[in-house]
Specification:
Blueprint (H helix, E strand, L loop, with lengths): L1 H5 L2 H19 L1 H5 L2 H30 L7 H27 L23 H5 L13 H16 L2 H26 L2 H13 L6 H43 L1 H10 L2 H14 L4 H14 L2 H18 L5 H18 L5 H13 L6 H34 L17
Helix pairs in contact: 2-9, 2-17, 4-7, 4-8, 4-9, 5-10, 5-13, 5-14, 5-15, 5-17, 10-17, 11-12, 11-17, 12-13, 12-17, 13-17, 14-15, 14-17, 15-16, 16-17
Length: 411
Amino acid sequence: MLRSLRAYRSSIILLSALLIGGLFGGLFPEWAIKLKPIGQIFLNLLFMIIVPLVAVSVMSSIAHMTDLKKLGSILVSIMAVSIVMAIVPSVGVVLLALAYDPAQGVTLDLANTVDAASGSMDFVSLLTTNDFVGLLSKSNILALIIMSVIGGVAIGQSGEDGLVVSRILDSVNTVIMKVISILMYVAPIGLGAYFAATMASQDTELMGTFARAVGLFFVAMALYLTVGSTLYAWIGGGVKGVKQFWQHMLEPAVTALGTSSSLATLPVTIRSATKMGLNEQIAEISLPLLVNLNKGGAAAITALKIVFIYSLLGLDFTTDVFMLTILISVLSAFVIGGVPGGAFLGEIFIVTTLGLPMEVIPILVVIGAITDATSTVINVVHDLTATQIIERINGKHYAVKIPDNGLGELD
């Protein structure tokens, strides 16, 4: 029992700090407001690291992936399946949240601090900047991601010189991750203080909206786990594929629930793929990549957070915002997944891209922390269904294994 709880230690500590902060803000509002600078310092530290984090981590990852370009169609299939499996739950959650408003009329009194979250979106400005300096601003994260992807591809295609740059990026990425790990030690204090200041001036009914939002997410993911998984498994292997999936998905699902980590569950996922009779070559290539790319659960909770905050702020959820929500959900799942303290960086991604007030970050963190285990389960089980689909697309290229000639070499 204690070993299982250990995986959730950071989430439990964080939620406890936010709960204490919320209660303090409600009971002693005058004192709580004075704590805001403490939280502001912590958030500013995160803001300062997000630009180098995104640039370095994305370029490094893409540079390594381009080494797999000889795999051709299977790599394209992995990317395409991962994107679709992020879009589907994101769209579903948005539609469900719009139909059943989890805020139920409760509003946050932060309207004066919203920069650009309402009205139509300027997608040219969101996706590009007119000079290099613009890429160094946290307000242009989407443009930074696009340029980082292009840079990563260029590094991967630059031969020996590219390898040198790639190694340097790996080293820098290691240092950045360590910086983030250090910052996470003070996260409960920083976010707790900021949440206390936020709650000091808000309606006590706000707390009830969390339960409705989380409950909505659990219902949506239960439907997606049953209906969505069955559909994906059928696409990947027909009726037989559905039977194979449901016979062998429980072990990785339970492991994901206990560890709250897709990466920690990977060995169990690979073993389940073998039991399902999936092609070993395809599974060994696909699953390690899917762990980082296929994060439908993470995309879904990102989408819910955006709809929820728009409702709390009383902002119109326009068609432009809908499209941007899906884009943010997919990209945040790809970029933030696997990063220590990724939840905080995901919230910053949402806030800076949509021009939302920083006061909503602790609210987003609360929802993310409570739903983290469920999101991980969705991510893991759909690594299996994604592998089924990838095998169906590419199986003919891997159907025949090259025999061993007995000399330890392949013919």
